Amino acid sequence: MRWGLSGVYVFIGVVHLVATDAMLPLMPDWVPEPRLVIQATGLCELAGALGLLLPATRKAAAIGLALYAVCVYPANVKHAVEHIHIAGIPDSWWYHGPRLAFQPVFVWAALWAGGLIDWPFRRER
């Protein structure tokens, strides 16, 4: 789970950095400096992905990635509700519905991969 989640966040982080302008329409109006925020979140995703793999930073990275997943939810909602077209991303509820429903799973996965929770898979002590 840790390696898979790290891979997902490396991919998403790179997308944030190389396609910043394409993601600008997703940012809610109340977000200050949206371009900078997208780039900063890309760097945070990369740092979180690496941190999740290192025992010394695993718990902090897990908390950061879980908080990140909560914080980007408004942009995901805006994308779905306002039907914002982004090249390469479907604009259908077949895409948006599962994406929005799956966001809490990303929060759980980060916390589980970081060893902060063990629900529902109990680890042996």
TrEMBL record:
Keywords, alphabetical: Membrane, Transmembrane, Transmembrane helix
Residue ranges the record marks as coiled coil: none
Signal peptide feature range: none
Transmembrane parts of this sequence: 7-24, 101-121
Membrane topology note: Multi-pass membrane protein
Compartments, record wording: Membrane
Amino-acid biosynthesis among keywords: no
InterPro entries: DoxX (IPR032808)
Record carries keyword 4Fe-4S: no
PANTHER family the record matches: DOXX FAMILY MEMBRANE PROTEIN, MEMBRANE PROTEIN-RELATED
This protein's name: DoxX family protein
The species this protein was found in: Methylobacterium komagatae
